[in-house]
Amino acid sequence: MATKKRHKFWNVVVVITVIICTLALMAHYKNWIRTNASNIQILSGFYYNKIKFSELDSVLMVEKIPPMERLNGFSALEREKGIFREFKDSLTDKKVYVYVDHFPNPKIKLVYKDSLRLYMNLRDSLENEKMYHFLKNKRDSLPLQFSSKK
User: Fold this and answer.
1) What is the 3-class SS of 25-36, one letter each residue?
2) Largest CA distance in the chain
3) How many of the other CB atoms lie within 10 Å of CB of 147?
4) Rounded (5°) CA angle 144-146-148
5) CA 25 to CA 46: how far, in whole Å?
6) Nearest-angstrom CA–CA distance, 70 and 68
7) What is the pLDDT of residues 24-69, one digit of tens each?
8) Whether the Cβ atoms of residue 84 and residue 98 lie closer than 8 Å to each other
9) What whole-number distance in Å separates Cα of residue 43 and Cα of residue 35?
10) pLDDT tens per residue across span 48-58
11) pTM of the predicted model, to two decimals?
């Protein structure tokens, strides 16, 4: 009985495909957040935002996010991630970024650059609360900036 010879090329292609799919799943699995002295960086799959603390206008904790139309992104189980547009604001086409890891938990609403909004939360409610207080303290510790025209 003759055995079929398999090409090593296809074995390598299958292994590389499995590795890429695993990395994509890990990137979307949770919100990857990094903070430093001047900004917060949020990576969630294909979506990345970098927000300077000096650009923060408000930090709020909200129970629900408003009804929105998804421009792109996904919803799976208790996660919702992507770029959305609020129904009431459909004419201006302002984007709302949503990075929700656990839908039942309260969400952190960030308003920055005067009108851009971002909703985020973490899977662990205690970590979510810590992140909220951290961002709130960063926002409150900023000096007030007044624009004066002379």
Assistant:
1) HHHHHCCEEEEC
2) 93
3) 4
4) 160
5) 11
6) 6
7) 877 777 788 899 888 999 988 788 899 999 899 999 999 998 888 8
8) yes
9) 12
10) 899 999 899 99
11) 0.77
Which pair of structure tokens corresponds to residue 25? 């799943």
| 24 membership: H or E segment, kind and range | helix 8-29
Do the beta carbons of residue 128 and residue 147 sit within 8 Å?
Answer: no
Q: From residue 114, give the alpha-carbon distance in Å to each of 22, 55, 58, 62, 117.
A: 38, 8, 9, 19, 9
Is residue 85 within 8 Å of residue 68, measured between CB atoms? Answer: yes
Give the Cα separation of 120 and 106 in Å (integer).
Answer: 9
How many other CB atoms are there within 10 angstroms of residue 55's CB atom? 15
Structure tokens at 113: 């650059």
Dist CA 5 CA 114 (whole Å): 64
Q: What share of the chain is helix, strand, coil (3-state, %, to 5)?
A: 30, 40, 30
* Phi, psi of 14, rounded to the nearest 5 degrees: -65, -45
Residue with token string 């939360």 = 121
Q: Is residue 74 classed as helix, strand or coil in its secondary structure?
A: strand
Cβ atoms of 44 and 32 within 8 Å: the answer is: yes
